[in-house]
Amino acid sequence: MSWSMFRFREHWAHAHDVQQETFMALAAMYVEANPTYRAVPWLREWQAFWLRSIGRQANGLTDVCADDYLTDDGRVAQFREFLRDYQSWLVASEGPLVTAAGLSADKLVEFTQTVDAVLAGDETHPTVQLVQQ
């Protein structure tokens, strides 16, 4: 299993490539399925990036490019809300998702919690670290 990282502004955390790629695939499905998020233009652009990127990024370099799409605090807040809704969807859909993704809902939710902690700059989270300048 190869390692990658989720980075946003001054913080980052390790992740597995499979976690990020699974996030990109399933979060894209969730955007498409949810009318609220389907109507958000910048999230739709990011969704298209996720779909184009799955399986095309170099081993160990998987990147969801958060800084490119979360360009202001309003978008960050909206995406953090998306993550909470997405987590609820993951838990409710666990059976089919485990079959499709090969990861339990717990592992999928764990990744989104790490992303949320990075977005919040929460250095009390065990995997979040400050980017060394």
Automatic annotation (TrEMBL):
Protein name in UniProt: Uncharacterized protein
Species whose genome carries this gene: Wenjunlia tyrosinilytica
Lineage, highest ranks first: Bacteria, Bacillati, Actinomycetota, Actinomycetes, Kitasatosporales
